[in-house]
Amino acid sequence: MYQSIFFFCFLFSLSFLGVLGVLAVRRAGLSQTRAWCYLVWLSWQRQARASQMVWIAVGLLAFAVALVAIFTAMGAWSMHYWRWPYRQGPTFLQWADEIQIVMSVRDSSASGQGVQAALAAAVRGIVEHSGFAIFSHWGVFLLFLSFLLPLFNLSFATEALGGERESNSLIWLLSRPLPRPAIYLGKFVALLPWTLGLNLGGFGLLCLAGGQPGWLAFRLYWPAVLAATLAFSSLFYLMGAWFRRPAVAAIVYAFFLEVILGNMPGYMKRISIGFYTRCMMFDAASAFGIQPERPDIFLPVEGTTALAVLLGLTIALLGIGTVIFSRTQYQEIV
To answer: Which residue among 21, 105, 250, 310 is least enclosed by CB atoms within 10 Å?
Structure first.
């Protein structure tokens, strides 16, 4: 049900972007409609010429996948080898067996043995299903969501317009007989395959390296990754139209403001994109016990609400960026 709602909202957003593009060139006639389609194709090809930032993102992805694969081979996504209460103590499974033996000696009644067996089985169940929770915390929330996801988006989104400005080709593009809103939306449409491919593909590789817990994480979390990609792409793309050095502004936002706002108590974190992404993930994996460490401080929202906010934010940022791009006087960089 949850994924069906997501697909409906995602298709609605794509249809909305298509309608905006058609409206932007409706007065231009068939020739300019073809010109807009060619602009999308040309911009997509220009994005294929990976910049230094993109190569850094790909290199970090390869390093992260290798690191996760090493942890998977070491069995780090499971509590089988965790010891309590100290490193020299027994493992959790050994501790459960010892406790059951000791308690069975002290209480040999049928009801007492039933309680002991239930407690031991509960401990074993937690240990057996701990891989998904550990992988979600370290591999998804800390590594991918907090670091790789923003970096992948800003690598392409800031380059879409920022690269045009630095190469002084934006002035030539603005001199073409296409409305500025059509240019802005066209380059964003050309940007989406790269950001969606890198984010979903990178997340898939990371989950593949994580083994069975990773596959479960990909099945549950990919809608949140897709919605966050749309929101981050529209935000960093807006920075490309607003700032002369958009990559710097995007890095400051992603790794300082987003981290600070996302960890503030109360309602301040609700202006953070990462907050709504986490809420979607918590809602999708609630049946597996995945929730905020302190829900009374995190104050999550429902998954459908978080999805609506991310898609609405994407459309709002595109509208703001279109207005800024249409009214800004761009000059050549000497």
So the answer is: 105
